[in-house]
Amino acid sequence: MKNILFIAFVILASGFAFAQHTTVGVRIGSGSSGFESNVTNITSNRVDVASEGEKMVGYVVFDENENVVKSKDINTSYNTSVDVNNLQSGFYYIAVVSENDQVSVNTYVKP
């Protein structure tokens, strides 16, 4: 998960991710792998994320003020769950990193 924080901060700093206010993933990067991630299930304790095109190797969760509130390296997988139980109500970005360093950003609103 090399450079994940740098990549994620560049995404957020550029304002690109802020323009995305849906739960549809937005792919960032110049690769042609077709990597995308999508939120597939939301509960009060968990957000499930699935990827297409490449396996995921980690994620970073940012709040609306660009603060990192959670990050995790994961074994390469097409599916993962993000524990959101301890997050306060609000708007979050989930930046998922693929095995080829592609980044896909999803949004999540915790009630």
From TrEMBL:
The keyword Signal applies. Residues 1-19 form the signal peptide. Keywords: Signal. This is Por secretion system C-terminal sorting domain-containing protein. It comes from Moheibacter sediminis. The lineage of its organism: Bacteria, Pseudomonadati, Bacteroidota, Flavobacteriia, Flavobacteriales.
